[in-house]
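R.M. (postdoc): so does anyone remember the format we settled on? I'll just put the structure tokens first.
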């Protein structure tokens, strides 16, 4: 498939070109200051790309530039893909959200819940109810990550060799059985804790479909959508386009760090939580599938009702993520006004969000500072791709939302006019600084 390209003038799509210049300059400064290696940003309205910029390098040491066909480790942006796979099986009647997980994965038959004590002497009790499929989809199952270092159950994950979510050398089936042998942090369905749940969903897809996760995704999702650059490894032909991964240093700079091992053939561990690499074109295609409520270019993967179900808040009591802030990893201002659906975050109270967001906006991000979102009310999709694992919270996401919001001048373009363009992607940005309308209220 061709690389992503700009399809319509920004002004024709209800976006202010000067505000988009400011967006480009903001992130270009971060590249020039050595805080990012390079980036790609794309903004689309009504399905047509109205702004596309690449800047900086995908490999600093080699001096290789970011291009529109660069490949990126998207890490946790894998989770919405896994959720779509599960929802496809749901529509086929092969499972339901209320099914107990042990119906398909027997290791979850007798879950136990942490009660008290340190990791090496933890008191547990039998769970009052089973872990259900919906609990995995919403991260309310009681599972966790070993790298949190905030709870005794996190320490039990580390003791089991799961600090990086998989015990070295294990495959998906072995890893999921290991998760099931460890206590839950809380009773299923009562709290929210971002976790390894999507790996369990990946294994669920394998068992229910009878196919390995990579084969199911390739045959049922990537192939039909024309996402030819998305997968759990990169081929020899693709390897030269893969961006290098960097980590944030103590002084705010970046340095190369080991990343998701994508070269060298099919991995033994297929992570439904964070195993995919992808391109800007493919991310756009997937976002468009969701924006169009399950259909793209005549291919329907999900019904509109199922996408609507996926993209509404499912947290207990219709709470936002900040309500579950007893764990430091989640008690962040950016979680105000944001709920969680089936594999995606969902804005439920725009007035409380840290950055401008329309009601019902949904999407997700990856640990290497990649993100996408869909704003249905404004017919807007956005993606930002780079490859930096931060040491702590950073401002890329709220800055991006603020800068995109400032560029929206027409809040309800039913369909951008067909003034198309074959302009090459922009590199950096320059322009005036005149004031533009604020983020459209009430939409």
């Amino acid at each position: 498939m061709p690389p992503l390209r700009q399809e319509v003038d920004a002004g024709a799509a209800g976006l202010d070109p000067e505000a988009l210049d400011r967006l480009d300059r903001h992130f270009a400064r971060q590249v020039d200051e050595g805080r990012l290696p390079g980036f790609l940003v794309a903004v689309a309205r009504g399905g047509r790309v109205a702004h596309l910029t690449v800047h900086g390098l995908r490999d600093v040491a080699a001096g290789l530039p970011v291009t529109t066909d660069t490949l990126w480790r998207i890490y946790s942006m894998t989770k919405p893909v896994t959720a779509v796979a599960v929802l496809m099986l749901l529509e086929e009647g092969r499972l339901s959200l209320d099914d107990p997980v042990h119906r398909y994965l027997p290791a979850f038959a007798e879950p136990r819940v942490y009660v008290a004590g340190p990791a090496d002497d933890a008191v547990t009790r039998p769970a009052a109810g089973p872990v259900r499929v919906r609990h995995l989809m919403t991260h309310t199952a009681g599972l966790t990550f070993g790298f949190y270092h905030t709870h005794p159950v996190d320490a039990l994950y580390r003791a089991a060799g799961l600090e990086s979510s998989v015990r070295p050398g294990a495959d998906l089936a072995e890893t999921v059985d290991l998760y099931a042998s460890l206590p839950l942090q809380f009773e299923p369905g009562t709290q929210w804790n971002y976790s390894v749940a999507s790996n369990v969903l990946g294994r669920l897809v394998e068992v229910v479909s009878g196919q390995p996760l990579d084969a199911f995704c390739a045959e049922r999702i990537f192939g039909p959508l024309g996402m030819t650059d998305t997968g759990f490894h990169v081929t020899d032909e693709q390897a030269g386009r893969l961006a290098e991964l960097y980590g944030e240093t103590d002084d705010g700079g970046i340095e190369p760090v080991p990343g998701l091992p994508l070269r060298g053939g099919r991995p033994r561990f297929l992570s439904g939580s964070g195993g995919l690499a992808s391109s800007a074109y493919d991310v756009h295609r997937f976002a468009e599938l969701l924006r169009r409520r399950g259909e793209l270019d005549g291919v329907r993967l999900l019904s509109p009702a199922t996408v609507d179900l996926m993209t509404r808040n499912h947290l207990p009591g219709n709470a936002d993520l900040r309500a579950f802030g007893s764990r430091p990893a989640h008690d962040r201002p950016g979680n105000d006004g944001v709920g969680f659906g089936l594999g995606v975050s969902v804005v439920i109270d725009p007035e409380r969000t840290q950055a401008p967001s329309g009601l019902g906006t949904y999407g997700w991000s990856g640990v290497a500072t990649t993100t996408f979102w869909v704003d249905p009310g404004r017919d807007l999709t956005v993606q930002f791709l780079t490859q930096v694992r931060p040491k702590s919270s950073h401002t890329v996401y709220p800055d991006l939302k603020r800068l995109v919001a400032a560029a929206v001048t027409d809040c309800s373009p039913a369909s951008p006019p067909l003034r198309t363009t074959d302009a090459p992607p922009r590199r950096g940005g320059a322009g005036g600084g005149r004031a533009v309308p604020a983020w459209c209220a009430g939409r």
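R.M.: ...and that's the designed sequence above, right after the tokens. Also worth knowing: The radius of gyration is 21 Å. The chain has ten helices and 17 strands.
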